[in-house]
Amino acid sequence: MNTSSALIKYPSWLSSSQFRLAYKRLILPIALIALIASSTTREITVTTLSDAFWAVSCYVAFTLAIYHYLSSYMSKGNALVKLYARSRTHQVFFASLLGALPGCGGAIVVTTQFISGRVGFGAIVAVLTSTMGDAAFLLLASKPDVGFSVILLGIAVGCLSGWVVNKFHADDFLRPKVSDSDDVAVCSGEVEIQRLNTNTIEKKAINLQGIFWKLLLIPAIAIAALGSFQVDINELFSLPSMTIEWLGTGLILLSMFLWSLTKELKDYQSTVSEDQKYSGSHPIQKAAQDTNFVTAWVIVAFLFFELTTFFAEIDISQLVSGWGMWMPLVGLAVGILPGCGPQILITSLYISGTVPLSTQLANSISNDGDALFPAIALAPKAALVATLYSVIPAFFVGYGYYFLFE
């Protein structure tokens, strides 16, 4: 028998991909457990994770729940979408309003409407300028006064940008020729899919995320509110020292473990974009999915700050402040990146006091969120030019605030 020509048959389950890590998000909860297990980093990790859960996640979940409940009662006809199609001036104004909605749904509405020929190029510049993506939820939950001010500023700058662009470009500038079938289904200002093509593990994890926040939202926001008023929860309930901190750490680990199993990361877009949501899901379910996505990026930002400070024995706030006039440019550069994840990092650093408000403002104006992905896929030239146009007001707003107030 010629052994060189013999075929060796392996079982179907034994393949080159058997050791592939399908759910790469698991790296985050595993890394967190490793940091807690180490006596060197245990205290700082527990404190950071507890703060991330009680001071950020709970408020983000509460804000998102209100938002999704209100969205569920809104008209399914998208009245704003119909209104802004009447004139170029109205298009820009309503596009800015849609972009200012927290999340990426409103911006994706305008982006896909431009691609299908229903609105002009000025509208897409306006919406990309005014949108903050999911970072808006984080800013509203943590610093509502600043959050609303930034949103209003985004609307004003978006309108001005769109109207200026309309003076120089026709509505069909850089618009590709596509059919209406390429448009995205939108409901109540939020892009959703009619059916989730997920496996059993992902479906269970998604459902458990919803159950997690449905059971915990009210008691968690109550504890978070007490903590915001400087009430010592451990002392109030006669609990042993660090009990509430360890509870927050355990809950955030559980939420991150569930989040890690809801989506397989395949590329940059799947990494930095929020998870898709089923159009018929309960508002709490939608809030849970968005909350855990935001929380994951907040954890990365917070731990990066705390661990760098701890091991390098430096104050990052003072180090970064030494960059002075370069800081708005940092926020602007990160804002150019598609997706909500990098923008949440900047907002997290602003909330922690690491970067100044000028950096946050430059990032908020240049930030296009997830809306840039459908634009890049269907109209890459228009997406590139619109993004570059949004950089111009971001530069002036960021540096204007820096020189005037910082």
UniProtKB/TrEMBL annotation:
Keywords: Membrane, Transmembrane, Transmembrane helix. Pfam families: ArsP_2 (PF11449). The chain crosses the membrane at residues 52-71, 92-115, 121-140, 147-165, 211-231, 243-261, 294-314, 326-351, 371-404. InterPro entries: ArsP_2 (IPR021552). The keyword Endoplasmic reticulum does not apply. This is Manganese transporter.
